[in-house]
Amino acid sequence: MFSALSMKFFSFERHTFLVLSSVGYALLLSNVQADMSVPRNKSIPAVIVFGDSIVDTGNNNGLTTIGKVNYPPYGKDFMGGKPTGRFSNGKVPPDLIVEELGIKELLPAYLDPTLQAEYLITGVNFASGGAGYDPLTSEIANVISLSGQLELFKEYIVKLKEIVGDDRKNEILANSLYILVIGSNDITNTYFSTPLRKSYYDISSYADCLLNYGSSFLKDLHELGARRIGVFGIPPIGCLPSQRTLKGGKERQCVDYLNQAAQLFNSKLAADLSSLGNKLSNSRLVYVDIYNLPLDVINNPQKYGFKIADKGCCGTGQIEVAELCRFACSSDSDYVFWDSFHLTEKAYRLLVHKILVQHLSSFF
């Protein structure tokens, strides 16, 4: 039997402004373009994000789920120290992507009740912490499934058309950058922490099952007008502080079988995207590796300006996430991880920059 703390933790496990002036954004955009090889005659009018807690910017706040973090110490380094539902101490990858691209300062959650109509023009976020490719993953966590996120996107398209008209709407949809970050919860939670899928699949066939859901989603997204789509792989989930604590033995080592499952899924995903990209007209499907660089940061934190990579900043750093994260360390810039699942803004900023430099040109 699990303890009450373990049960609460596994529940969480089911879900892993300063406003710049227009001149400042123009300067930022020109620098980014020079660094990241965006063709001069091309543009990215908006960024649209789907996925899980790595990229959720607050969509879970209004849901009846324990998978939400709109309370301190989350957001302690966000603008004004405000907890917004971002699973970190500050900004998360969607914010950093639009910032680096010079589009805007933050990528708002689509379900944010204060969302202004004009924000839709430059992109919004549909991600929901706790979601997975597998509908069962989202159902267990009581969050927005991938198909549910797609339904919200359809609603967004209708609103966008009302704001800018049909022609401009189509132009925005075709040229925007779409990001999908999902899959970790399927592996760590639905597969390895419950018998609900493990009884019917080995890990390879379960990965194939996840990819079937993913391919269906990408086809639907393409049908709705998306063309530039970046699909992130699964990070080294065996090295999450939570997994080290729960499954890494007394020494809290990285859990090999979890990392091997992530690598297996990633290899299948890369191949699947290559095949699917050849079938979807005028599409750019880009596989984004977020396994190898994060693993190197975790294994060699000093190399990247960190001191601690096996524990999070909040609580003991070994198990706390969401409402178990009651207090934070005094020096989160020393940490790769904010809680036992999610990275600090400093770590996310490093990764997002490297990813954009490496992959942005692939979308053109």
From TrEMBL:
GO biological process terms, semicolon-separated: lipid metabolic process
GO (cellular component) term, any one: extracellular region
Family annotation (InterPro entries): GDSL (IPR001087), GDSL_lipolytic_enzyme (IPR050592), Lipase_GDSL_AS (IPR008265), SGNH_hydro_sf (IPR036514), SGNH_plant_lipase-like (IPR035669)
Xref: Pfam families: Lipase_GDSL
Superkingdom of origin organism: Eukaryota
One term of GO molecular function: lipase activity
UniProt-listed Gene3D superfamilies: SGNH hydrolase
Coiled-coil positions: none
Family: Belongs to the 'GDSL' lipolytic enzyme family.
Name recorded for this polypeptide: Zinc finger protein
